[in-house]
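FAQ: What does the model actually see?

It sees only this:
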Amino acid sequence: MEIIETLINGLSSGGTYAMIALGYTMVYGIAKMLNFAHGDIIMVGGYMLYVTMITAGNPMLGLIAAVIFCVLLGITVEKIAYKPLRGASPLAVLITAIGVSYLLQSTAQMIFGTAPKMVIIADMGNFEVGALKIPYYTIVTLVCSFVIMIALTMFVKTTKIGRAMVAVSEDRGAAQLMGINVNGIIMITFAIGSALAAFAGFFMLMKAPSLSNTLGAMPGIKAFTAAVIGGIGSIPGAMCGGILLGVVEAISFKIPVIAPYTDAIEFMILILILLVRPTGIMGKVRREKV
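And it is asked to produce this:
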């Protein structure tokens, strides 16, 4: 039974990592940039949830407010910080993204202070069948994360905007010649990624209700690792990498000898996979036109 509990916990954590990783992989696949401020959108959503919980006391209302605020923030950051650098070197964009990350962290620290805030969303209890005991928040996180990822996959494959996203990711210049609004598609991509970050922050606070200005730092790095493992730019790859990382993390925590080295093990898996397959598990080799 303990193995089943560990596996379900791992899938739940992996689903959260996958949601964050989808933001990284979609932005990279379409805008060809690494948005290292993405993890801090999680933190901003967490604080928005905290403020709404204080004023209204309703976690669902807090989630809606967090999603709306994070979407608006993602669009604003893209317009102000990234859009002017559309033709700049990747290094300039990367440095800007790191700067935006520290700006968001510092702003949150100035507004809310350094002391962690407690965000108690709900005490759901445990699901028990015989010796099997699983917290309900784990099941909710697992189910919701998979529903969100399936919905996103269907959106990309079946809608006009989704197909436009695929076209822009394949060849931005050709997509523009075909009448696709590339800037609009990139803006929508940032909006979707920011909404996913808000959902991820909600699920993270369900599991560990402590909120600080560095809430999204390590999960953001791990989600980026998951995106690279799965194949940066690939939506199924981000899901695969997130689930793999979550399961490895859950198993490592259960083994006392290696539990302190869990983070090192996760990054070692990244190195080993990239040595065997540099494009990631589901990544594609792209031919550069000259």
